[in-house]
Amino acid sequence: MIKLVNVNMNFRGKQTLRDINLTVKQGEIMVIIGPSGSGKSTLLRLIIGLLKPTSGEVWVSDREITRMTEDELNKVRLEMGMVFQYSALFDSMSVGENVAFGLRQHTDMPEEEILRTVRRKLRMVGLRGQENAMPNELSGGMKKRVSLARAIAINPHLVLYDEPTAGLDPIMSNTIDRLIVSTRRMIDATSVVVTHDMSSAFRIADRIAMIYDGSIIEIGTPDTIKQSENPIVAKFIRGASALPESKGRAKI
Ligand SMILES: Nc1ncnc2c1ncn2[C@@H]1O[C@H](COP(=O)(O)OP(=O)(O)OP(=O)(O)O)[C@@H](O)[C@H]1O
């Protein structure tokens, strides 16, 4: 479970997030949408504890993380898997070593079990037997899948996805979407997905939150969002380019 309570985030006096109240329930897939510059990545970074809010509280699995020390935060982060926008694999390591990385760094798991876990996670993302491949031999979609296998290797309670389908063709996007949904099912993880891809958002979300100018302006099931009477939401889901200017803050 994740809970943000009255969160404000200012960068050099400029308010980037304002009065965010958001609860993501255990096992829920929450998709965050919004124009470029609206504050989506900032929200993810607050949940991982890479940023501390200017005011407000961030709760992760019943713990308030904003006042934690770096050591305490690192323990909480062990329960989180992160799939980055550009996969962020270690290029000098094989696929298997990438997936095993968190297990070798942070657990006492015997090597044999690590190898078994790596095999199982690669199978889950449709990359059976690819342990010895190097990242530069893989397509963008395969790299994303390795990144997902690495994120779920530690059986996280929480998986965060930053633009998981960016730069992928529709078929691969669909594959990644199905993996996000099956990952939630298999490890019962709470998931937060930041995306610009509206068809993906509608396919995978239990609920969608739209951020605009640092505020959540709409939140609800995909159907609620589709039927929103808020003109900014309606325009955004038809195509971000049709959005009105917003006080010059968002770089639409
Ligand atoms: N560390 C920082 N220092 C100063 N300003 C920042 C910092 N991080 C983000 N910002 C500003 O906060 C605003 C929101 O940025 P953020 O990256 O959260 O938006 P986003 O919705 O994720 O955008 P995109 O979709 O383009 O990734 C932007 O105006 C950005 O310039």
UniProtKB/TrEMBL annotation:
<keyword id="KW-0547">Nucleotide-binding</keyword>
<protein>
    <submittedName>
        <fullName>Phospholipid/cholesterol/gamma-HCH transport system ATP-binding protein</fullName>
    </submittedName>
</protein>
<keyword id="KW-0067">ATP-binding</keyword>
<dbReference type="GO" id="GO:0016887">
    <property type="term" value="F:ATP hydrolysis activity"/>
</dbReference>
<dbReference type="Pfam" id="PF00005">
    <property type="entry name" value="ABC_tran"/>
</dbReference>
<dbReference type="InterPro" id="IPR017871">
    <property type="entry name" value="ABC_transporter-like_CS"/>
</dbReference>
<dbReference type="InterPro" id="IPR027417">
    <property type="entry name" value="P-loop_NTPase"/>
</dbReference>
<keyword id="KW-0813">Transport</keyword>
<feature type="domain" description="ABC transporter">
    <location>
        <begin position="2"/>
        <end position="238"/>
    </location>
</feature>
<dbReference type="InterPro" id="IPR003439">
    <property type="entry name" value="ABC_transporter-like_ATP-bd"/>
</dbReference>
<dbReference type="InterPro" id="IPR003593">
    <property type="entry name" value="AAA+_ATPase"/>
</dbReference>
<dbReference type="GO" id="GO:0005524">
    <property type="term" value="F:ATP binding"/>
</dbReference>
